[in-house]
Task: structure prediction
Amino acid sequence: MNEIIFIRFISNILGIHVYCVSPYDHSLSTFEEECCFEKTLQPMYTAEYLEYILNHSDFNTFYEITDYLNTNICFFHFEDKQYIIGPYVKNHFSGQEIQELLATHKLPARIFMPIKLYYNQFPMLSYQMIRGTVMAAMRTFVPNMPEYKYRKLTGFHEEIKEHKLIEKSNKTYSQIMDQYEMENFFLRKISDGDVTGVKLAFENIASNYYASTSQSQRSLYSTDWNGFAVLRTLARKAAEQGGCSVVKIDEITHESIQQYALARTGNELNNVQKDMLIKLTKAVADTKKMANYSPVIRNTLNYISANYSQNISLSELADMNHISEEHLSRSFKKEMGISITTHIGNIRVNKAAELLKSTSLSISDIAMYIGYSDNNYFVKVDGVKFFL
Result:
């Protein structure tokens, strides 16, 4: 059978991506890279989990998976190959439905636009349409192909965790105590806002970990998703203890999750973790500096930091602080050395620079993400023209 013709038959009729996923290693990684928006919400779209379920799937069966974002994929065997179709959606998602989804999964409102763009790239199809088209394509090559069964998959990622083998640690008591001491030192540096100390502590932990573990154990602080989740949780608590706003902590760690999902090499994964820790520590340091500002300016800075992607007016900020616009403007300029408008613009441009370096979003998408919708003004960020 010519698998290219088979794939084109389905893809052209349905307007959907079709992946031939044999052999697993490269093709499943390609699927994950192209289709997985967020690993914690879509563990079933990762190469690891897909390989497991494909290895344990039956012939003559269509499988359908619906993730936590309500996107779907189908997969099945045909002759000596396995295929994944999708992702696809079964209905159009309104702005209100996306907001409800964000609230359900406790996701920040700032990812509203990225999720909307993610949904918009997929066709709206029913399972019945996909199954009918695939069966017709199969019978073009194998006329007497029997009807496939249907199975909806749920909860399989917990099953995978139960099958994972954990290698017993060979660490001595002294090595264990040294590791805990280093980790506590590292967390204290985050709480202190000591960026230099965090960089040094992270490198010490990583080098000690690699020196004391076998190749198969090297996951924590390196390439394992669960290890990253542990590190992220510890760092979040340390930053919170350092006085950092939980809104700011959530913003930094959520961005790191998205970057981690896109990373492919050990160095890239390590850099994502290190960048997250540095950003959290800098945020703690900035929070400690804010202790020198008046309560009104601290309140204004926190609000701008959490809402820079929205239209923030001077009257809104003044009303929030129960003072006049003129008083707020004078106080802000006196304590910060710049105007409120300039401060908001600086935050947006810095965020744009980060997104240009760390994501594949287009300039227009980034402009919308950070709160600019007027295309008439531009500024250069790292040599790239950006909307202002």
About this structure: The longest helix spans residues 266-289. The mean pLDDT is 79. The beta strands are 18-20, 61-66, 72-78, 81-88, 149-153, 378-381, 384-387. The chain has three domains: 3-163, 173-290, 293-387.
